[in-house]
Amino acid sequence: MQLMNMNCPHCGSKAEKNLTTYTIDLGEVLVVIRRVPCYQCDHCGEIVYDADVFQNIEKIVGAAKTMKQEVSIVDYKKVA
Ligand SMILES: [Zn+2]
Predict the structure, then answer these.
(1) Of 33, 34, 43, 45, most Cβ neighbours within 10 A?
(2) CATH number, domain at 18?
């Protein structure tokens, strides 16, 4: 069961379910994760992730680090 409502930590407006591209530059490795489920504030555009999703992001980033590719582009749906 998904959370029905999520409020923006910045402005308190309602954040709607959306998909985003998560990018993190670790210096040696740039990790791009596409189609990540998130909540996006319709007021200020702030993006919030579920705890589960954030754990998966950390796993994907950890795996990408060990591959030592300069750029890793991962489809969230294929690994989570
Ligand atoms: Zn907001």
Answers:
(1) 33
(2) 3.10.20.860
Mean pLDDT, contiguous 10-residue spans, the chain (80 residues): 74 96 96 97 95 96 93 92
Residue 50 CA, ligand 1 centroid: distance in Å: 16
CA of 3 to the centre of ligand 1 (A): 17
Query: Ligand 1 centroid vs 34 CA: distance in angstroms?
Result: 22
d(CA 69, CA 36): 21
| pTM of the shown model | 0.85
